[in-house]
Amino acid sequence: MMNKQEAIFKYLVRLGDCALIHGHRLSEWCSRGPILEEDLALTNMALDNIGRAQAFLKYAAEVQGNGLSEDDLAYKRDERAFYNNLLTELPIGDFAFTIAKQLLLSVFENIQMQALCKSADATIAGIAAKSHKEVRYHLTHARDWTMRLGKGTLESNTRLQQAFNQLWMYTGELFEMYEEDAILNKQGIAIDLNELKTPYYNTITSILNDSNIKMPVADYMQTGSRKGIHTEYLGHILSEMQYLQRAYPDAKW
Amino acid sequence: MVSIHQHTEEEILEVLSEICDPEIPVVSIQEMGILRDVILQDHSCQVIITPTYTGCPAMGIIEEDIKSAIKNIGIANVEVTTTYNPAWTTDWMSDETKEKLRKFGIAAPLHSGCMNWAQPQSLQVHCPKCNSIHTQLISQFGSTACKALYKCKDCEEPFDYFKCH
């Protein structure tokens, strides 16, 4: 059984890892955007995510209290100690795939951060309030592109529909709660993810309906990240992201 | 070495209010609302700042600028702390600050109460160059995290709009 300190640490690392891996994936669009404005938009959102990751991981390091920094947590942990949702680590695919991923993630993050603003932990509430303002912009961006591609050409509609169909099986995990949630929910520090399901599905359904996209279905939902079990993609991200600190430990700018 | 007791928190705030935002050099970190507080202790000085955006790359430079400004007045022990609570908002900018932004070519943020964040196209943003209201949103994401990209349909100039936050 984990104690409260361990529970907060793992909860913060989860929030931090989701933002870190999501941000890293978005940064892969740098210089590859379909148009200049989109290159800027996707990398701006990458930056927001990296900033959020830094805030949560810094607080996680403080809670852990063994002298490590947010950089140590980002660059020196192994794959099995990462707790980001699987959805964040999936490859960026084509632009439609990234937009579908952005919609599924930003609708979730929008209600998640809004709910976390009421956390009994003032630091979590503060980071959430800040992040919520940023995520709203990510959501409108994803929503507008979902409509544009969904109502665009047969080609854009087909690609977007395929992307949602492929990604849907990763959405169940967003609402999974684990040991740390059980401990922290009682103290009002974490949020009950079950309560986010209805607003999440309502928002997604309404946006997809407005975009001529059929609501996807999945025979089963993927799971694993709460236990540190990931898709084959996370290892490749980490080998790229952590290369420098692994090859030259403690190298500084 | 000057004793720390020769300084007051107000004096230090005044020194720090001269530090400019590295991205927008016409306004100070105090006018931007980044500088929150100064706390003097027996042998050290703590400065509290809050980021405009979580990933704002200027925060590192601002922290260094604060440390060197305080060291320059003889206080060696400076700690810069980042707080997220209360969350930074563009509503902290005074009208004077917004006018400085406009003169610099950046359309100033509207009050967050006027913002329907779900419908950004509905915002009435004036062109900072010709003051026309016939402007068009090009992208919600501009040259920095805090700005959106617009163009003026009258003078045809593109310009940055400081997003409501």
Topology of helices and strands:
The complex is a heterodimer of chains A (253) and B (165).
Chain A: H1 4-27, H2 36-64, H3 70-75, H4 86-89, H5 95-116, H6 122-150, H7 154-167, H8 179-186, H9 194-210, H10 232-241, H11 243-247
Helix pairs in contact in A: 1-2, 1-8, 2-6, 5-6, 5-7, 5-9
Chain B: H1 9-16, E1 35-40, E2 45-49, H2 58-72, E3 78-82, H3 95-103, E4 106-107, E5 135-139, E6 147-152, E7 158-162
Parallel strand pairs in B: 2-3, 4-7
Antiparallel strand pairs in B: 1-2, 5-6, 6-7
Low-confidence region ranges of chain A: none
* Quantity of strands of chain A, as a count: 0
The number of domains of chain A is 1
The overall number of domains of chain B is 2
Order of helices and strands of chain A: HHHHHHHHHHH
List keywords for this structure.
heterodimer; A: 253 residues; mainly alpha; Ferritin; 11 helices; 66% helix; 0% strand; globular; B: 165 residues; alpha/beta; GMP Synthetase, Chain A, domain 3; 2 domains; four-stranded mixed beta sheet; three-stranded mixed beta sheet; 3 helices; 7 strands; 21% strand
Give a description of the structure:
The complex is a heterodimer of chains A (253) and B (165). With 253 residues, chain A is mostly helical. Chain A has helices spanning 4-27, 36-64, 70-75, 86-89, 95-116, 122-150, 154-167, 179-186, 194-210, 232-241, 243-247. Chain A is built from 11 helices and no strands. Chain A is globular, with a radius of gyration of 18 Å. The longest helix of chain B is centred in the middle third of the chain and has 15 residues, at 58-72. Chain B has helices at residues 9-16, 58-72, 95-103; strands at residues 35-40, 45-49, 78-82, 106-107, 135-139, 147-152, 158-162. Chain B has 2 domains: 4-82, Fe-S cluster assembly (FSCA) (GMP Synthetase, Chain A, domain 3), CATH 3.30.300.130; 90-162, no CATH class. The model of chain B has no long low-confidence stretch (mean pLDDT 90). Chain B is an alpha/beta fold. The chains are: A mainly alpha (253), B alpha/beta (165). The A-B interface holds A 37-38, 40-41, 44-45, 47-52, 54-55, 122-123, 125-127, 129-131, 133-134, 136-137, 140-141 and B 51, 53-57, 83-88, 117-118, 120, 138-143, 145, 149, 163, 165.
